[in-house]
């Protein structure tokens, strides 16, 4: 149960961070550092990050985001499968 809670939390967090960063980018305001977005993606937030990329059209050209979010998806699935 703890793993599922973590998965939901990290994915919702990254989704919200990506949405907030896109909004700030449009306004020309202070941005969320990429290292936080990438870190949350690798920490298991890949699904939320990929969904945010699709919905907000944000960071779609940067291959490092695609790579780190897919790695995060893979790691999260491994975590959920191995800790039952």
From TrEMBL:
* Transmembrane feature ranges: 35-52, 64-82
Superkingdom of the source species: Bacteria
Going by the UniProt record, its keywords in alphabetical order are:
Membrane, Transmembrane, Transmembrane helix
Looking up InterPro entries in the UniProt record yields: DUF1294 (IPR010718)
Q: Give the Pfam families listed for this entry.
A: DUF1294
Q: What is this protein called?
A: Uncharacterized membrane protein YsdA, DUF1294 family
Q: Which organism is it from?
A: Pisciglobus halotolerans
Lineage, broadest ranks: Bacteria, Bacillati, Bacillota, Bacilli, Lactobacillales
């Amino acid at each position: 149960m703890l793993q599922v809670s973590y998965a939901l939390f990290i994915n919702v967090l990254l989704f919200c961070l990506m949405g907030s960063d896109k909004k700030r980018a449009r306004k020309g305001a202070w941005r969320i550092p990429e290292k936080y977005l990438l870190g949350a993606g690798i920490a298991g937030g890949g699904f939320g990050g990929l969904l945010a990329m699709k919905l907000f059209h944000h960071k779609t050209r940067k291959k490092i985001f695609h790579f780190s979010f897919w790695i995060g998806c893979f790691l999260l699935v491994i975590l959920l499968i191995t800790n039952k």
